[in-house]
Design brief:
The protein has 4 domains: 44 residues, no CATH class; 100 residues, Translation factors (Elongation Factor Tu (Ef-tu), domain 3), CATH 2.40.30.10; 116 residues, Rossmann fold; 81 residues, Beta-grasp domain (Ubiquitin-like (UB roll), Roll), CATH 3.10.20. The protein has 10 helices and 19 strands. Strand 10, helix 9 and strand 11 form a beta-alpha-beta unit. By secondary structure, it is an alpha/beta fold. The strands form 4 sheets. Strands 4-3-6-1-2-5 form a 6-stranded antiparallel beta sheet. It binds flavin-adenine dinucleotide (FAD) and FE2/S2 (inorganic) cluster. The site of flavin-adenine dinucleotide (FAD) has 23 residues, from strand 4 and strand 5.
């Protein structure tokens, strides 16, 4: 580690794009040690943090009866040159505990340091879900949240393909909305077909904006209202967009729907044209017993059942572990299993002592120890 990295070590993880900002923050961290600079910075402005990304919710705007857009003003260190289609992590303090989830950005990135220094996410309240309902109906403007930097591979190439197909269902429209808004802002034109499914017309997020894109000739829009017309299947996709196999396709929706698309594209020999994002963890029938999870480096333990992930277990007892998507996509959460066995929540695959495991999709199969 060079002198610069050593000096900036206390603010590692929230590095700003401009190197001089990192140096100033690092100096603040050193001057205020042993108290953390956040203890002082927070008093001046709750968005100033040398340790973590934060944001303030400036608006909660209803989209449909059960969804809302959250406009967030990020604090220091947030990079606005994310790619449309990427997601952020958002952490909200509920009953004394930070609860994290991932949400696709619905805003268009601002590369040019323009005036609009906000981002947005759009959340659908999930029945029996823990955080989404609170974000849609219980979050007040002014709330300070924690943020994890934008990431994800569900993005468009540059230059854009000549023919694009988007297939979305429900809240799966969110990453595509960021792509469309970005294309509009950049005045990028290409041949775009969007097939969107929702139970009824009233459940379509961004309905007016999509209609505007359609009337301006930016997209060809097909809406499938599943309560009246049933779910989309191979034949319907064929009817709505006969050249689907030739198009580069980005699809986002429930796992069963995405898996069906995967099979359709595979059978057509077009699997490399299909790019998929799933929002929901597929919880297979794994039958793990749960047990005591020991976090060796922090000397903490958590008792868990066979449905709680190791990441959730750590968060319950205040162990900070690395994470990104929280559903098995990104590999950010991999740690070493130093004792015992765990199972993959999605398919039951067992991992044993010595292996590196993804904590966000692993559950304890008896007592186990993690090297964190
Ligand atoms: C990359 C990415 C992008 C995303 N983007 C968006 C977006 O733009 N908009 C959006 O609305 N959502 C998005 N999501 C989904 C979002 O992260 C949350 O998963 C969603 O909001 C539900 O959170 P929740 O806390 O309400 O539900 P959770 O409490 O996490 O529960 C989710 C579901 O799992 C079930 N469940 C939870 N715990 C258990 C258990 N122990 N046993 C069995 N079942 C259980 C619940 O019943 C519920 O149906 C995205 C997810 C990812 C990974
Ligand atoms: S957090 Fe992304 S794979 Fe676990």
């Amino acid at each position: 580690m060079g002198w610069r990295e050593r000096f900036e070590d206390p603010v590692r993880g929230v590095a700003a794009r401009h190197p001089s900002v990192n140096v100033i923050r690092a100096a603040a961290a050193r001057i205020t040690t042993p108290l953390l600079p956040d203890d002082y910075l927070h008093l001046i402005n709750p968005l100033w943090s040398a340790r973590e990304l934060r944001g303030k919710v400036v608006q909660v705007r209803p989209e449909t009866a059960d969804s809302a857009t959250l406009v967030i003003k990020p604090g220091w260190g947030f990079s606005f040159d994310y790619q449309p289609g990427q997601y952020i992590g958002i952490g909200v303090l509920i009953e004394g505990r930070w609860t994290w989830r991932s949400y696709s950005l619905t805003s268009a990135p601002v590369h040019d340091g323009g005036a609009d220094k906000t981002i947005s996410i759009t959340v659908k309240a999930m029945p029996e879900g823990f955080l989404s309902e609170h974000l849609v109906t219980g979050l007040r403007p002014g709330t300070v949240v924690r943020l994890a930097a934008p990431q994800g591979e569900f993005v468009l190439p540059d230059p854009l393909p000549a023919k694009l197909l988007f297939i979305t269902a429900g809240s799966g429209i969110t990453p595509i909305m960021s792509m469309l808004r970005t294309m509009e802002r950049r005045r990028q034109h290409t041949d775009i077909v969007l097939i969107h499914s929702a139970p009824t017309a009233l459940d379509v997020m961004f309905a007016e904006e999509l209609e505007r894109f359609e009337s301006q000739g930016m997209i060809i829009l097909h809406r499938q209202f599943t309560r009246a017309a049933g779910k989309l299947d191979d034949a319907k996709i064929d009817e709505l967009c006969p050249d689907w196999a030739e198009r580069q396709t980005w699809a986002c929706g429930p796992p069963a729907f995405m898996n069906a698309l995967g099979r359709q594209w595979e059978q057509a020999g077009a699997a490399d044209h299909l790019h998929i994002e799933k929002f929901v963890l597929e919880r297979g029938a794994v039958g793990a017993a749960g047990g005591t999870v020991t976090f060796a480096a922090t000397d903490r333990t958590a008792e868990v059942d066979g449905a709680t992930t190791l990441l959730e277990a750590g968060e319950r007892v205040g162990v900070q572990m690395p994470f990104g998507c929280r559903m098995g996509i990104c590999q950010s959460c991999v740690v070493t299993l130093s004792k015992g066995a765990v199972r993959d929540l999605r398919n039951g695959a067992e991992h044993v002592e010595g292996e590196r495991v993804q904590t966000c999709i692993s559950i304890a199969a008896g007592d186990c120890t993690l090297d964190v």
